[in-house]
Amino acid sequence: MTDPLAQIAAIVPFNQLPEEAQHRVAEKMAFLRFTKGEVIFSQKQPAYHHLFLALDGMAEIIVQNDAGLSTVIGFRQGGEFFGETCIVEKTYPATVKVIENMTCLTIPFDELHRLWEQHAAFSAYFSRLFAARFRSMIDEIVAEHSGEAPGMDGRPFRKRAVDMMTSPVLTIAAGEPVTKAAQLMADKRVGSLVVTEGDQPVGIITERDLVYQVLAAPSSLEAPLAFPSLKAVMNSQFITLPPESCYYQVLLTMIRESARYVGVVDKGRLLGIVALTDLVRNRDAGALSIVDGIEHCRTIDDLAARATVIDRLLTAMVAEQAQPNEIAEVITVLYDRLTARILELALDGLAKGRLNPPASFCWLTMGSAGRREQTLRTDQDHAIVFADVPEEQLERVRAFFLDLGELVVKGLEACGFARCPGQVMAGNPRWCHSSSEWMHRLSGWVEESVPEHVRQLTIFLDFRGLYGDLTLASRLRDAVHQTYLRFPVGLHHLAKDDLRHHVSLGFFKPFVTEKSGDHKDEIDLKRSLLVHLIDCVRIFALREGVEETNTLARIRRLSEKGVFHDNDAEQFCFSYQTLTAMRIQENLRKAHEGSKPDNYIHPYRLSKREQAALKEAIQGIIRLQSLTGSAFRVEGFL
Predict the structure, then answer these.
(1) All domains of the chain in start order, with CATH
(2) Predicted TM-score (pTM) of this structure
(3) CB neighbours of 256 closer than 8 A, spacing ≥ 6?
(4) pLDDT tens column, 550-560
(5) What count of Cα atoms within 13 Å lies in the side-chain half-sphere of residue 341?
(6) Do the Cβ atoms of 240 and 262 come closer than 8 Å?
């Protein structure tokens, strides 16, 4: 049998141990052999008191949720460890099944603990390994209590465009007559054809195009044989995506572009096409029907009804095990459409009274909506920026936009968005300014940086243009970056404000919870944890001139710029995804029970695996706050 000492001497991190320590651990090891199809241990089985080290072969890691759906979440092969999660759990959170004959060494946990305590590099290696393994289970945390519809595919959000597309695609050359396109559709019983020039897709022609642009066109009624060319009636805005695009990216593209078909293209070659009906087959096209309904709403009451449908979609997406960022992006797009339609109705109402916008303007959405991180409906946070006008016209112009702002506030309130307790709304004169006024106000906030101004900035700085003249929002974003270049001390004040509260873990009990009151022994996932991650990432993004407002997008850009190391960026993303997933789950549970969602969670009622993930997420925020304090010279972090 192979010498254990020879094996571990070639495997990280045992090869970093002193020779004496290697000899000692080798004496404690045992060999085990497993054959293909054998289960080494099962989910929920009482844990062994040793770690497995695979020498050869391969095994798959399988997790089963409460609905009985099994998912392979990873593989282990020669040189890799498994079974480590039982260090913090009494039972295994997953099943390990051999798919190629496997030889393993077992390492007693008491011996591992001794090595961790005596050798810092050894301990650091396993800390990183265990953290990465916990992060890999984030998909299952979202779905742990999800309910799957019998007979339905519970994971459409895991599908890629290449998995959903229809292939091969029926195409027709751009130079062919319309009659040939119609005949081909009829013969093949399809509703669309991709129009090509050479091998390149240049457009799409649908049955709808033939009816409205050819048969029902006035010219066709007068001269039925004078059909236009195919190129003249096709839709040249043929949207394409790469084959690895996931379900939610296809869904968002269809929503944003009001498209019923998306081409799948790889290196210029058309592989297939995804139709709206394909999304229906893959479980849910609810978002698309909601958008269509929003666009046709004629009253605020109609829109309010649509808002409740969005709530049901949110619940369905959680049940379908969509990632938190996927959920937020889809829900944000829908709420954007809802807000835009309220603005359109408000403007139509003012126009009927012969009141039209006296200057170009842009509606700014802020807070979680500005970051594209909205899930359940929250308090309103928005503002208006309008183009500069002569001084003598300023107050008259402002009065129009304040009236518009108040109409939209009332519309959003009717749709379930509560008024902001701090009055951060476009109907408030403090949040309705000309472009020049906003830039002056911004400079004042940053230069003075008194506590009240810092609080205003944390709300304002995540703004994005939602409706109107988006160049006004773009110029304002440029002004933000220029202001912080002139007054970098403003970033210090933002950091100091966030770090007044140190996120921490307890000594005897890992989680720092409320000591009294209605939420005794609970944690506010938003105010006590997530806010600090969002704030710190924002501060780094401002320093680096990052345009994105979304937290995950900011982390990725900061990683690309070398501001965050890859390991740190991965941990910060994990922290965000974990906390957001838990927040969504808990708030949906409370809403379902008739309670008010409040972002609080009782950490000791979570499963051991969820507790371990929560602890790891908190450690990520602790690390981020430490980096922030050091980078922006905050006392206590230097």
Answers:
(1) 4-149 (2.60.120.10), 161-280 (3.10.580.10), 285-486 (3.30.460.10), 499-632 (1.20.120)
(2) 0.72
(3) 333
(4) 999 999 999 99
(5) 24
(6) yes
